[in-house]
Design brief:
With about 400 residues, the protein is of the alpha/beta class. It folds into two domains: about 240 residues, Aspartate Aminotransferase, domain 2 (3-Layer(aba) Sandwich); about 110 residues, Alpha-Beta Complex (Aspartate Aminotransferase, domain 1). The chain contains 15 helices and twelve strands. It has a seven-stranded mixed sheet with strand order 2-8-7-6-5-3-4, sandwiched between helices. It is globular, with a radius of gyration of 21 Å.
Length: about 400
């Protein structure tokens, strides 16, 4: 089975799946590699976990580092990007009165971490409101600079925003903030595999990304990148044996993160296979896949906007393999993010696509949008079906 064949992806064929961005989908071939590793783990658990795992991780670090433009010694593995954000923020040497900057497009879970550490440390979370609709990426940097003060210590910034699917100009944001003495933690949950990354060229202070989304590795595979200058500060959110290890043959950063307790490491160990399969099976390899997915989502967005008579809320140059359209806000808040439109699409039309309320903290949200994703298993007719379903449900001419 090759990736262009729908059967290569273990998705329910009765559902039109347009939500790769939330949890990804792991191809069967990668899952087979993981199962072989699990078999080895269960045959010899002590040998696998206690004697072999560190060396296995080092090999994955080399491959992933080549893919991301990073040194292997700067990469550690975590179960997800939220864990990495917790690790960085809960290790950061904040002082009372410091300000932590974030945008109103930030992922809710990571914003919650900011609020937690701020309350614990006597700091203040400052929210920069980004325009929505937005005309250009330059408006993002302007909004951030307007909210920076002499007390700002750290910026948490999404590389690709979750609700609005905007690719933010982190290559301009990072140096601008660092020039002002502000460290930058980039939440790149959606970026690896989705965008062409060169972490050294970007030069952020911290970067985390998921591998289970656009790299197509199994769930539970993510990384944290920290340059050597900050590694001594950063501790895993789960403190374990490495905290008092007497070893001096490798950094404490690697020792602590590589073992935080017994878990199934096979998702992480399949990352090289997930990278290799795209290189071998898709014309043009990873650049070819990124170009294919972006073009498909651009076409899909045009279909939706035309059918629903909506205006574009963001320029194409700020989008990758996902795009959002603006919807009217709800009169009553959707509980636990289960928007009634998302439920109707799933139950009546067998279409899985996310609908988000966002902006503001708790209660009513200022904005609402529907986000589509494009992956190799999707076809143009998938989005035509979505457009007709939305039109039938009375979604049209949303004010933007």
């Amino acid at each position: 089975m090759k990736l262009h064949d729908a059967s290569a992806w273990p998705l329910d064929p009765s559902i039109t799946f347009l939500n790769h961005g939330s949890f990804g989908c792991c191809p069967r071939e990668v899952l087979a590699v993981q199962q072989s590793l699990r078999d080895r783990l269960e045959e010899r658990p002590v040998e696998f976990l206690a004697r072999e795992l560190e060396a296995r991780y080092d090999l994955v670090r080399e491959d992933l580092g080549d893919f991301l433009g990073a040194r292997a010694s700067e990469l550690v593995f975590v179960p997800n990007a939220t864990y990495a954000v917790n690790s960085v923020l809960r290790s950061f040497p904040f002082d009372k009165g410091d300000e932590l900057l974030v945008t109103d497009h930030a992922y809710n879970a990571c914003h919650n971490v900011l609020e937690f550490v701020a309350a614990r440390s006597g700091c203040q979370v400052v929210v920069a409101e980004l325009p929505w609709p937005i005309d250009s990426s330059g408006e993002v940097l302007e909004a951030l600079l307007d909210r920076v003060s002499s007390s700002t210590r750290l910026l948490l910034i999404d590389h690709v925003t979750s609700p609005t699917a905007l690719v933010l100009p982190v290559e301009r944001i990072v140096p601008a903030m660092q020039e002002l003495g502000v460290r930058v933690l980039v939440d790149g949950a959606h970026a690896p595999g989705h965008l062409n990354l060169d972490l050294h060229a970007l030069g952020a202070d911290y970067y985390t990304g998921n591998c289970h989304k656009w790299i197509n590795a199994p769930k539970g595979s993510a990384f944290l990148w920290v340059p050597e200058r900050w590694q001594s500060e950063v501790r895993p959110a789960c403190i374990s044996h490495g905290a008092n290890s007497p070893r001096d043959d490798r950094s404490r950063y690697l020792i602590e993160f590589d073992w935080t307790g017994t878990s199934d490491p096979t998702a992480i160990l399949t990352i090289p296979a997930a990278i290799q399969i795209v290189e071998e099976q898709i014309e043009g390899g990873w650049p070819g896949l990124r170009a294919h997915n972006r073009e498909l989502v651009m076409q899909a967005r045009r279909v939706l906007l035309d059918r629903l008579q909506m205006n574009s809320p963001a320029p194409e140059e700020m989008l990758g393999a996902m795009a959002s359209i603006a919807l009217p806000t709800l009169n009553t808040p959707a509980l636990d993010n289960w928007d009634p439109l998302q439920s109707a699409l799933r139950e009546q039309y067998r279409i899985e696509v996310p609908v988000f309320g966002w902006g503001g903290r708790g209660g009513m949200r200022r904005h609402r949008c529907l986000r589509i994703s494009a992956q190799y298993y999707n076809q143009a007719e998938d989005y035509a079906r979505l457009a007709e379903a939305l039109y039938s449900l009375g979604v049209s001419s949303a004010p933007v």
